[in-house]
Design brief:
The complex is a heterodimer of chains A (about 190) and B (about 650). Chain A is an all-alpha fold and about 190 residues long. Chain A has eleven helices and one strand; from the N terminus they run βααααααααααα. In chain A, α1 crosses α7 (about 90-105) and α8 (about 110-125) crosses α11 (about 170-185). The mean pLDDT of chain A is about 90. Chain B folds into five domains: about 5-125, 3-Layer(aba) Sandwich (Rossmann fold), CATH 3.40.50; about 135-235 and about 315-330 and about 500-570, FAD/NAD(P)-binding domain; about 235-315, Alpha-Beta Plaits (2-Layer Sandwich); about 335-495, FAD/NAD(P)-binding domain (3-Layer(bba) Sandwich); about 575-645, Alpha-Beta Plaits, CATH 3.30.70. The longest helix of chain B is centred in the first third of the chain and has 19 residues, at about 110-125. Classes of the chains: A mainly alpha (about 190), B alpha/beta (about 650). Chains A and B meet through β1, α1 and α3 of A and β23 and β26 of B.
């Protein structure tokens, strides 16, 4: 394992780490590493590092490792961790910011969620809401899982759960304004 | 014929669950001399005691056996109960059927059999008890406090404020101890000198406190209420009655010596006051470094002293004083980490310092006026590593215990470092963060907020590289090996007892634990008393603790002393040795074995076969004898015996069990 020189990693990554935490509205110093978040996380079994470790790596300014970790991409934003956190650390918000930073740095540790994330945001930006059928089709196309869930489509069509018509919201510019504000102008 | 009453206690289910108390009571009826037997759920309770008193009256009992818990627990309770009755308080025996029976047995049958045996032995012994009476011994209402750190000062002030005279003995030239060396105190960050020096001045000026600095306790005789202590008042070579404390001698003295008070960061003169706020505010001459003593030259201080206060001829004085009680507050030292931790440079790296040295560096009245610099080159450090548990919690190299104060002063140091040096980094390597105190954890959280990075793990090695020290450790929270390039490394080293504590313990008969801390009489219920009556502990002499705890313990010890002094006189213990002079052959073996120095040989005139002869006979000082019984077993001719535990009584017990 590589030895981390904390003095060097701090000099290099202090700003980036603090910026991500600030954007997420999280004070990294709040976390005292009790591990309650990891222990209660419903998707932790699929993660490569525990949610607690994401914060620990940020404490140690191990920035590259955080950007390459799968964990932020697997976070379902269910907020179980925040609800239980004794120090009120908003971990899903931090995960979201890490995902954006990771994407901006050209990393894609996990393909599926990353593709979904981009397509979903694009879709909402275009129409003000997500159109499930097209979303599913595009996802299958870009993720390479061409036939994933395809057999469910007729049933869903028959029941009227999905349709070919593209729905748009009435006040599209308003929705876009909200998205612009939230994403800071960085469209997917 | 004796009329013994036996009372069997259930102690709730403590006894009754493992011992068939009905069976014990039934068996007790057949013991010789027993005329009355009763059971009670709690003998020690008010109704239980009333039942005993009633039985004494109704059945004319003249001696009592109580089968209950250990005599250490309730013997005194029952003795007190008997003082209002016709039965002498010493006509009582306790059969311990709890600690020595129900608590250590599982089988009810065996437990019951043993309880019956214990009760039978007690009944046999009480049959041979004789009434004993206490007497009064006088009490000297003057206290001795050894060590004038914050604990000693606090204890002395409390006793003095209660109106009793105190002698405060300190081996250093000034009182104040460790606390006056510190910069600020956690968690409130009030300046240590600002809260310590008023107390020092108060102690120095208090009409009831006699201050003896540069003094050590040399010899102790006597017992509670009547200690005779010889104090060695070492020569200061300065007449304190004449000295005005102008400080001229200090300025002119040409000999420079490393300052102990500044932990080697600066130099002092051979005639010196350890620090400006010293109490008494007068200098002493350090004879080992003064040219007048080493080379018989100089003497400049004597020439310039305007009041002629310097006296090179002064000798050590031995002062004998009487005291009624003693508070031992000898304090702590830091472990000699250099010898133990080669991996941290073993003391060879100038910028790897201990926390007390850091206190001097960061202290506004210290050698750098509070500006933190590297001792090696005087430059301001930009990054600092603090290592906790150096010598603590390390049974292999240092001590197994936790030094208790380090987590908090470590957090304080990190806070001060980050506050004083802009743009600095501070890493704290820790094992656990222990902050059990009012406002303590909040303080630690604030230090994290200040930007200190806490790394869980011990530093494995430190080595110099490119002008800084590389500290290597594992962050066990992430499993990564980490390195830090530090300009300054502060080691939070373990507290150890002052070397002098060993001698003080020996002089007063106070035992020490495996690490050398003086032992309290009971870790929970008698935390300031020692096993020597009249000797109390305060502060870190008893074990590592922080300032609030030291002060609290000092006040507790003082209240014990005040409580003792509020008695007109002391009640003596009647269960002591006595001499059957006819049998004593004057061999003196008992004199050697007595740990309290209570036995002396006296020459008396005897008439044997109508001839006058002079014979040596053992004589027991009833004030000193603690009733340990060592002399009775050492005596070849069975001339010595112990009241309340006579040979006859013990043999009765043995007979009751074995015959």
């Amino acid at each position: 394992m590589d030895i981390v020189n904390l003095s060097v990693s701090r000099a290099k990554n202090n700003e980036a780490t603090e910026a991500v935490a600030a954007k997420a509205g999280v004070n990294l110093k709040d976390c005292y590493q009790c591990g309650k978040c990891s222990a209660g996380c419903p998707v932790s079994h699929a993660m490569d590092i525990m949610p607690r470790e994401v914060i620990r790596l940020l404490h140690l300014r191990c920035w590259e490792e955080v950007l390459e970790a799968k964990t932020p991409w697997l976070c379902a934003s269910c907020v179980t961790c925040v609800t239980r956190c004794p120090r009120d650390v908003n971990l899903p918000s931090l995960m979201e910011e890490v995902r954006r930073a990771s994407k901006a740095a050209g990393k894609r540790p996990v393909k599926g969620p990353s593709v979904f994330d981009t397509l979903f945001l694009k879709g909402v930006y275009q129409n003000g809401r997500s159109n499930e059928l097209y979303m599913m089709m595009k996802y299958n196309l870009f993720s390479g899982h061409l036939m994933q869930d395809a057999l469910s489509a007729p049933h869903l069509l028959f029941k009227g759960m999905i349709g070919f018509k593209i729905h748009k919201v009435k006040d599209l510019p308003d929705v876009r304004a909200i998205m612009d504000r939230c994403l800071g102008g960085e469209l997917p | 014929m004796s009329r013994t009453g036996v009372f069997v206690c259930h102690c709730g289910t403590n006894i009754a669950a493992t011992v068939d108390v009905d069976k014990v009571a039934e068996a007790a009826k057949d013991f010789p001399g027993v005329v009355f037997v009763e059971q009670n759920k709690y003998m020690c309770s008010e109704p239980g005691q009333q039942a005993v008193k009633q039985a004494i009256e109704e059945h004319g009992l003249d001696r009592i056996v109580i089968a209950s818990c250990s005599p250490r627990m309730h013997e005194l309770t029952f003795r007190k109960m008997l003082t209002d009755t016709s039965v002498n308080p010493y006509m009582l025996e306790i059969a311990n059927i709890r600690e020595q029976c129900s608590w250590v047995h599982k089988d009810k049958g065996e437990g019951t059999d043993k309880a019956i045996d214990l009760a039978r032995m007690a009944a046999a012994k009480v049959d041979r008890n004789t009434p004993l009476y206490t007497s009064e011994i006088p009490l000297t209402k003057r206290a001795l406090v050894i060590g004038a750190g914050i604990a000693g000062i606090q204890a002395a002030l409390d006793i003095a404020d209660a109106g009793y005279p105190v002698t405060l003995v300190e081996k250093e030239p000034s009182i104040g101890g460790r606390m006056i060396m510190l910069d600020k105190t956690f968690p409130t960050m009030d300046c240590s000198a600002c809260i310590c020096s008023p107390k020092m001045n108060e102690a120095g000026a208090h009409p009831n406190i006699e201050l003896r600095t540069v003094s050590e306790v040399e010899e102790v005789t006597g017992y509670i209420g009547n200690f005779t202590v010889t104090i060695r008042q070492k020569a200061k070579y300065i007449d304190y009655d004449k000295c005005t404390g102008c400080g001229l001698c200090e300025v002119k003295c040409p000999s420079k010596v490393t300052s102990e008070f500044d932990r080697g960061l600066t130099q002092r003169r051979a005639v010196y006051k350890p620090f400006p706020q010293a109490v008494p505010s007068k200098p002493v001459i350090d004879a080992t470094n003064c040219r007048k003593f080493t080379e018989d030259r100089c003497g400049v201080c004597q020439k310039i002293c305007t009041v002629d206060a310097i006296d090179f001829e002064e000798q050590d004085k031995l002062v004998k004083q009487e005291f009624g009680a003693v508070v031992v507050a000898t304090g702590y030292d830091l472990i000699d980490w250099g010898k133990l931790y080669g991996e941290y440079g073993g003391g060879a790296y100038p910028d790897v310092i201990d926390a007390l040295t850091f206190e001097r560096l960061v202290n506004a009245s210290g050698p750098t006026e509070g500006h933190i610099v590297r001792p090696s080159d005087g430059k301001e450090p930009k990054s600092c590593v603090m290592i906790k548990c150096v010598g603590s919690r390390d049974p292999h190299k240092g001590k197994a215990y936790c030094s208790r104060a380090c987590c908090m002063y470590g957090a304080k140091h990190a806070h001060q470092f980050l506050e004083k040096i802009e743009g600095s980094e501070c890493y704290v390597f820790y094992m656990d963060v222990r902050t059990p105190g009012k406002g303590y954890d909040e303080f630690y959280m604030k230090t994290l907020e200040d930007g200190a990075t806490y790394i869980r793990g011990r530093v494995a090695k430190i080595y110099p590289e490119n002008g800084h020290y590389v500290c290597v450790g594992e962050d066990t929270l992430s499993g990564k090996i980490v390195k830090v390039n530090a300009d300054l490394v502060v080691l939070d080293t373990a507290m150890v007892p002052q070397e002098s504590a060993g001698e003080i313990g020996r002089l007063f008969g106070v035992s020490r634990d495996q690490d050398g801390w003086l032992n309290e009489a009971h870790p929970k219920l008698r935390p300031v008393e020692t096993n020597t009556a009249g000797v109390y502990l305060a502060g870190t002499a008893q074990g590592p603790k922080d300032i609030p705890d030291s002060v609290a313990q000092a006040s507790a010890a003082a209240s014990k002393v005040i409580g003792l002094f509020n008695h007109k006189a002391l009640e003596s213990n009647p269960m002591i040795s006595f001499v059957n002079e006819v049998n004593c052959r004057g061999c003196g073996d008992c004199v050697g074995v007595c740990p309290y120095g209570a036995i002396t040989l006296e020459t008396v005139e005897r008439r044997e076969n109508s001839v006058k002869v002079m014979r040596d006979i053992a004589n027991i000082n009833s004030g000193l004898c603690q009733g340990c019984g060592a002399c009775t077993s050492a005596c070849y001719s069975s001339a010595l015996d112990l009241k309340g535990f006579t040979n006859e009584q013990i043999l009765q017990e043995v007979d009751a069990l074995c015959l």
